């Protein structure tokens, strides 16, 4: 009988080891859950960024204000009759 109980304890120990640290065990399961959570956060950020870019594209395609603003900020363009002033801060 003692041999039978010892055998069951060994079997239980081996099964517990496989459950916690073995292939497809709980350790790997929780690790995968964490990876899934991180990937879902990254995907949500990309969805939000794509939405902003889609809105910007639509705005550039339909309106002239966004195109003009972008040309002024990025290319330094001025309209006819306007005077461009650049304010340069001195070193402290």
From TrEMBL:
Specify the protein's topology with respect to the membrane: Single-pass type II membrane protein
Q: Which UniProt keywords apply?
A: Cell cycle, Cell division, Cell inner membrane, Cell membrane, Coiled coil, Membrane, Transmembrane, Transmembrane helix
Q: Quick one: a GO cellular component term?
A: cell division site
Provide the protein's localization: Cell inner membrane
- Positions in the Periplasmic compartment: 22-92
User: What do we know about how this protein assembles, alone or with others?
Assistant: Part of a complex composed of FtsB, FtsL and FtsQ.
Q: What is this protein called?
A: Cell division protein FtsB
The coding gene here is ftsB
């Amino acid at each position: 009988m003692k041999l039978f109980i010892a055998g069951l304890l060994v079997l239980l120990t081996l099964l517990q080891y496989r459950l916690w640290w073995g292939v497809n065990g709980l350790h790997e399961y929780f690790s995968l859950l964490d990876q899934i959570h991180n990937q879902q956060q990254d995907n949500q950020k990309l969805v939000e960024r794509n939405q902003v870019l889609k809105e910007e594209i639509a705005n550039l395609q339909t309106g002239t204000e966004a195109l003009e603003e972008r040309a002024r900020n990025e290319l330094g363009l001025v309209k006819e009759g306007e005077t461009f002033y650049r304010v340069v801060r001195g070193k402290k």
